């Protein structure tokens, strides 16, 4: 899990360095790598690439593409730790949408945890001069669509193989972001090509090791490690980008993460474990 966290953190840093490449173009390059690797594993397992529950598979792809594109925008425009903290709101929106889409229940105390996280967002905005409200809202929107994407995955957990579910992200992203990128295309030069390849490779390594970690241990014991990513991001902001956070802004980041972790550890547990990818 630690390898996964380090690779995801390094990927976020790479996106930050590619600040002159538009977010849709970054998503396009990332999806090309994912498309190639996912199709390889689908063919290797003799699966149908288009799956069964196509409505929710397509929804998963559209929601996922929207979430990643807006996340890349915030990575480029906001301090790294702030952008990542906003993305960490996704479990909250996952739980909220699941009440309608998956019939799950939200306990009364969970709403208190949600409130703690949103209070943290208000503190980040109020005590961090580098945060533009427009991009802060864009970061929250990224978490909203990530929550919708996770619910779409839940809708197909009994009908489609996880490899096919993963494949629908690049299947949707590659043509759409390819067309969008035509209008905003910035030709990568020199080392930027290497960074684009590195972005895809780091993402793949991170996803593989995260999956291995969740398959070999209790998820509840590993989930908290994911949030070490904000520690790395704070280090990158301070030592590389010279971002100085006010103490209250740091407290806000802590409140966001605390609210999410409290929700993850105290939410009602299902007796049956479901593998979704």
From TrEMBL:
<feature type="transmembrane region" description="Helical">
    <location>
        <begin position="57"/>
        <end position="75"/>
    </location>
</feature>
<feature type="domain" description="EamA">
    <location>
        <begin position="136"/>
        <end position="264"/>
    </location>
</feature>
<dbReference type="GO" id="GO:0016020">
    <property type="term" value="C:membrane"/>
</dbReference>
<feature type="transmembrane region" description="Helical">
    <location>
        <begin position="165"/>
        <end position="187"/>
    </location>
</feature>
<feature type="transmembrane region" description="Helical">
    <location>
        <begin position="222"/>
        <end position="242"/>
    </location>
</feature>
<feature type="transmembrane region" description="Helical">
    <location>
        <begin position="109"/>
        <end position="127"/>
    </location>
</feature>
<dbReference type="Pfam" id="PF00892">
    <property type="entry name" value="EamA"/>
</dbReference>
<feature type="transmembrane region" description="Helical">
    <location>
        <begin position="193"/>
        <end position="210"/>
    </location>
</feature>
<keyword id="KW-1133">Transmembrane helix</keyword>
<keyword id="KW-0472">Membrane</keyword>
<dbReference type="InterPro" id="IPR000620">
    <property type="entry name" value="EamA_dom"/>
</dbReference>
<feature type="domain" description="EamA">
    <location>
        <begin position="1"/>
        <end position="124"/>
    </location>
</feature>
<protein>
    <submittedName>
        <fullName>DMT family transporter</fullName>
    </submittedName>
</protein>
<feature type="transmembrane region" description="Helical">
    <location>
        <begin position="81"/>
        <end position="102"/>
    </location>
</feature>
<feature type="transmembrane region" description="Helical">
    <location>
        <begin position="21"/>
        <end position="42"/>
    </location>
</feature>
<feature type="transmembrane region" description="Helical">
    <location>
        <begin position="248"/>
        <end position="266"/>
    </location>
</feature>
<dbReference type="InterPro" id="IPR037185">
    <property type="entry name" value="EmrE-like"/>
</dbReference>
<keyword id="KW-0812">Transmembrane</keyword>
<feature type="transmembrane region" description="Helical">
    <location>
        <begin position="133"/>
        <end position="153"/>
    </location>
</feature>
